[in-house]
Design brief:
Length: 453
């Protein structure tokens, strides 16, 4: 059997074949079920047209179509698709294009139309579809539709506009559905940042090139003014010197950790080894993602064995990020109890922010609480914040955990912490995060600077 491409070429070579080929192309660009343009045809028409004005583009998605297919059957779902396609075709102006661009996704291209006018069209479509009823095998039913709206600039690409509209569509879904949301500057900036974010492939290449490393920030005792620990902060330093922070890549680590974790864990082991000298009691703290704690507990995880290889576990602290949501509290508690049994201490990071506060002190075994900068920055001026810190210090005595203040940036903040009896602190005023190599190359400041102490 000849391929479709070969068959179309043969038609073009025959008498009148060129016209037949064009007709076949037009048919191929049409959706069989709804009769609307398919995505390929939609993009082709948009690309071929000469635009002298900006166009508005609406992207729609039928709410709850999956439940219709599951409960009423695919044939009923198809009826809804056809009903919506008919509504869309009826509002499509001359020169506009209505298309089915995905399973239950539709788009409407409106030439010489302002966003305000396009929004009115979109709302009309939503209202008409919400009122439409079709007969399913279990009786009459109806559904709603959500939409995202943006504008295609005169020289702009439709693909980019559809991507923006998809972002607005997601916002419409999250905002309650059956509505139109227009792209705003905040969404546009968010998309711009997303496009600049590294990909999983970039990260894998970075790991192979040993671009992931740790910076360390000192933690001092405010009673002795001596260095008692460091927090190891993972960084991605690319070959051009760009330093990427965890918020740019940790979500990929937590999704793909099984295949990519080895080298970063080896780097973490190197950091601990730098401080775990026989004549020192300095500890090294690492943030631990809540996604790791949400996983089913596995005795002696391989990554933990790698991290603690040749290291005294008592020199290691794992910080639970307070803002991270822990869904499987049983698995998390099992993991934390296992870590503590090995000698690792557990810290509750960013205390005072996030999903919970005192509840985690009750739910999980905690050795250290790290007070968030939100409280530290206002100790001198906010009596409520001082009261909270005083209460935390009392709790620390009752429950047997230590307290570290984070984010100390001024001498007044440091003095306020001393006055309240907070035993340990870290922050830019006490020491900036530094690459491990720079820390090791300098004369180690085991005591605070004179102007700080």
């Amino acid at each position: 059997m000849r391929s479709l491409r070969t068959a179309r070429a043969a038609l073009s070579d025959s008498t009148g074949g060129h016209l037949i080929a064009q007709q076949n192309d037009a048919l191929l660009d049409r959706d069989v079920l709804t009769g609307l343009m398919q995505r390929t045809g939609f993009m082709k028409v948009a690309a071929d047209g000469v635009r002298t004005d900006a166009m508005a583009v609406l992207l729609f998605d039928i709410d709850g179509l999956k439940s219709v297919n599951n409960i009423y059957g695919l044939a009923t779902g198809d009826k809804l698709l056809v009903e919506f396609a008919n509504i869309l075709a009826s509002v499509c102006p001359e020169g506009g294009v209505a298309a089915r661009v995905g399973g239950d996704a539709f788009s409407l291209l409106l030439p010489q139309t302002s966003l305000h006018e396009a929004e009115a069209v979109g709302k009309s479509v939503c209202e008409r579809f919400a009122e439409a009823e079709i007969m399913g095998r279990l009786g009459q039913l109806n559904r709603t539709v959500s939409g995202g709206l943006t504008q295609v600039a005169v020289q702009g690409a439709l693909e980019n506009a559809l991507s923006e509209a998809e972002m607005a569509l997601s916002a419409a879904k999250e905002g309650g559905r059956n509505r139109i949301v227009t792209v705003d500057p905040v969404m546009r900036n968010r998309r711009k940042r997303a496009l600049q974010e590294p990909t999983l492939e970039d990260m894998r290449k970075g790991i192979e090139a040993d671009e992931f490393t740790y910076f360390v920030q000192p933690i001092y005792s405010l009673e002795t003014n001596k260095l008692v620990g460091v927090e190891a902060l993972i960084r991605w330093v690319t070959d051009d010197g760009t330093v990427r922070l965890p918020r740019e890549f940790m979500h990929m680590f937590t999704r793909q950790y099984k295949g990519i974790i080895n080298r970063p864990v080896n780097a973490a082991n190197e950091v601990v080894a730098s401080f775990a000298r026989p004549d020192s009691d300095i500890f090294c703290a690492f943030n631990i993602s809540s996604s790791f704690l949400n996983r089913s507990f596995e005795p002696s995880p391989r990554w933990l064995d790698q991290l603690l290889m040749g290291i005294n576990p008592k020199r290691t602290v794992f910080e639970i990020v307070e803002s991270g949501q822990i869904e499987n509290t049983t698995a998390a508690r099992n993991m934390l109890n296992f870590l503590r049994a090995q000698g690792v201490r557990i810290a509750l990071d960013d205390f005072g922010t996030g999903h919970s506060n005192l509840a985690r002190l009750v739910d999980f075994p905690v050795d250290i609480v790290k007070l968030d900068r939100t409280f530290v920055s206002q100790l001198s001026s906010n009596t409520r914040h001082r009261a909270v810190v005083n209460a935390l210090m009392s709790l620390s005595e009752e429950l047997g955990f230590e307290v570290i203040a984070e984010g100390v940036e001024t001498p007044d903040e440091l003095q306020a912490l001393r006055d309240l009896g907070v035993p340990m602190a870290q922050g830019y005023y006490l020491g900036l995060p530094q690459p491990l190599q720079e820390w090791n190359a300098r004369d180690k400041a085991v005591v605070l600077r004179t102007d700080v102490a």
